[in-house]
Amino acid sequence: xxxxxxxxxxxxxxxxxxxxxxxxxxxxxxxxxxxxxxxxxxxxxxxxxxxxxxxxxxxxxxxxxxxxxxxxxxxxxxxxxxxxxxxxxxxxxxxxxxxxxxxxxxxxxxxxxxxxxxxxxxxxxxxxxxxxxxxxxxxxxxxxxxxxxxxxxxxxxxxxxxxxxxxxxxxx
Length: 172
Fold this sequence. Notes:
- This protein is α/β, with parallel strands linked by helices.
- The protein folds into two domains: 2-45, no CATH class; 50-163, 3-Layer(aba) Sandwich (Rossmann fold), CATH 3.40.50.2300.
- The chain is built from five helices and eleven strands; from the N terminus they run βββββββαβαβαβαβα.
- The protein has helices at residues 58-70, 81-90, 107-117, 130-139, 152-163; strands at residues 2-6, 14-18, 24-25, 30-31, 34-35, 44-45, 50-54, 74-78, 95-99, 122-127, 144-147.
- The strands form four sheets. It has a five-stranded parallel β-sheet with strand order 8-7-9-10-11, with helices on both faces.
- Helix 2 runs parallel beside helix 3.
- The chain is globular and about 30 Å long.
């Protein structure tokens, strides 16, 4: 059950409780800087873009997850590549965002195995090592590479570009 608000502003709108089935949350849509809906839950319509984040550094993983979720993306985060593979096998993700240098399985090997399982999933590497960046570009030419350090704004912009997320123009 969801509360449907009809009106110019949610707090002054007419309200009705309705049952909505088989709808998925909006991706990353905003109008006049305010998310669609009344802020009590996700807006509904098109499918939300799902990101699988593989990052072994806990602080970085939490930081990236929070930034991407605040930008309207659904994020599942794991601490290593070997933890990511079972999720890729059982769930659908639009983007694999992975550090390259990780224990057990590096991000390049993870991306190669992930591409075999889910060929439509896009890949973006994040790394602080220039030599590793060149290796990633050679082994996964369709993947994007974002070099550390980077600003969170740059990460979100790169993800937006990958999915051509458009802002809804304001009506001033």
